[in-house]
Design the sequence.
C-alpha cells in the first residue's frame, strides 16, 4: 500500500475545508477541540513546506545569479 504525500495546494485545500467545517451545519461541539488540534498541526506543516520552498527558491536564485 502506497501513501501519496499531499502537496502544499492539497494541504491548503484541506485546511480551508476544515475551517469551513466550523461554520457549517456539520459542526459538532464534541469534535471541535480535536479538529482544531488537527488543523493547527496541518497549518504548521504548511508553514514548514512553504519555508522549504522559499529556501529552495533562494538556492536556485543564487545559482542563476552566478
Sequence:
Amino acid at each position: 500500500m502506497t501513501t501519496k504525500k499531499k502537496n502544499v495546494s492539497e494541504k491548503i485545500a484541506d485546511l480551508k475545508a476544515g475551517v469551513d467545517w466550523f461554520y457549517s451545519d456539520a459542526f459538532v461541539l464534541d469534535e471541535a477541540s480535536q479538529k482544531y488540534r488537527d488543523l493547527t498541526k496541518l497549518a504548521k506543516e504548511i508553514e514548514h513546506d512553504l519555508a522549504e520552498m522559499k529556501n529552495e527558491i533562494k538556492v536556485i536564485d543564487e545559482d542563476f545569479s552566478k
